[in-house]
């Protein structure tokens, strides 16, 4: 059966010392009161090598927020999937709407990134979601279907390692959350697309996270929906108490 997961996306926040302090605090809090779901923190690249040894691997997984679409070589400023994996990280967020919008990451680029992540034993947390105009035009289903092409080129075995995150762009960092009904409707649609591509068993085993202004006050209602298997959390992942409040939605 699929896993319930709460994953944090720190984005470009926290200097190294602050990041280490947050990881230590989270580790303490979650060691004292064990979560009922998988917990992952995705940090800026420079934090990874410091954060992976200080968290209990059995309680907190660590991931990057991106990786390069090339194996290695003359790509100044890029960080490869192999480099990420060498820090001990086990996950990587790919396809976040900020990367798609500000860094022009296309379906083709993301297809390469997903392949390289998997080739280096990193599990992709693959983000999909529509912008406000697409939602207003009722195009969200076709938008996510087109975005899924980056992971639908994988074998069923490789797809089984992918975590999906539905993040409506209009809800990210805006304080405006999708209603549990809106989330359930599109999560169920996404699962039906996975079933059509890989079969019912793979679809039932795929974790689909919701992201977009998820907070301790709304997490329980969202995660109670049958096709919402947890959350990808931005702002509320930057404080241990808030992140723990969301994790506790599974208690
Ligand atoms: C995100 O960017 O992945 C996200 C969900 O952000 P926030 O929780 O701040 O809306």
Automatic annotation (TrEMBL):
CDD domains: TIM (cd00311). Pathway: Carbohydrate degradation; glycolysis; D-glyceraldehyde 3-phosphate from glycerone phosphate: step 1/1; Carbohydrate biosynthesis; gluconeogenesis. The active site is at 96 (electrophile), 167 (proton acceptor). It comes from the Bacteria. Keywords: Cytoplasm, Gluconeogenesis, Glycolysis, Isomerase. GO terms for molecular function: triose-phosphate isomerase activity. Its main location: cytoplasm. It is found in: Cytoplasm. SUPFAM superfamilies: Triosephosphate isomerase (TIM) (SSF51351). Substrate binds at residues 9-11, 173, 213, 234-235. It catalyses: D-glyceraldehyde 3-phosphate = dihydroxyacetone phosphate. InterPro entries: Aldolase_TIM, TIM_sf, TrioseP_Isoase_bac/euk, Triosephosphate_isomerase, Triosephosphate_isomerase_AS. NCBIfam families: tim. Involved in the gluconeogenesis. Catalyzes stereospecifically the conversion of dihydroxyacetone phosphate (DHAP) to D-glyceraldehyde-3-phosphate (G3P). Homodimer. Belongs to the triosephosphate isomerase family. This is Triosephosphate isomerase.
